[in-house]
Amino acid sequence: MKKAILSLIVLVIISLFALVAYHRFPVRTKTAFFSVFPIFTWVSIDQPVLFNHILHTQNLNLNCNFCHRYAGQYRSAGLPNIEICKACHATDAMSKRPEALKVVRYVQKGKEIPWEKMYDLPKFVVFPHSIHVQNNIDCSVCHGLTPKKERPVKMVDRNYMAWCMDCHQKRGASNDCYACHSS
Length: 183
Known about the structure:
The chain is mainly α. The chain has helices at 2-24, 26-36, 53-59, 64-67, 82-89, 98-109, 129-134, 140-143, 161-171, 177-180; strands at 42-44, 153-155. The protein has two domains: 1-36; 43-80 and 115-180, no CATH class. It has a two-stranded antiparallel sheet.
């Protein structure tokens, strides 16, 4: 009985320290947590079509800009429209997989695929994709495993200010507030 009570007290104390550390030192705590438990760095995102990034980026050797056409010129990378998909998926001749056949049906109906947006930053944050692309920052720096997974994945360990500031500091980019918090 004494061991159980002692174990419970130790568990409560460790939990309290973890809670305090998390709220007072979020960057170090998150980094330590994600390095110990890397499986929690990403989550799968359900999409209307299970887009296979591995097939498109590695097997077909397409780069991210092929589908995300606006990444090099504008703030937003943009979601692939049906015209881009139509280039390869106009008929079922090339599309034998069930998910690819879904794309063919969208193309034949002329309907846009209702993609779910994976990253949604607060309105006061500006992320200009074009500046990052022009500075040869690889998409995987922010999007991590996305091109290496069959399912679309969202990197949750990178979606906070301290991570961005650390990346800017390592690359000699501006950490001025207005670099990311302007309109």
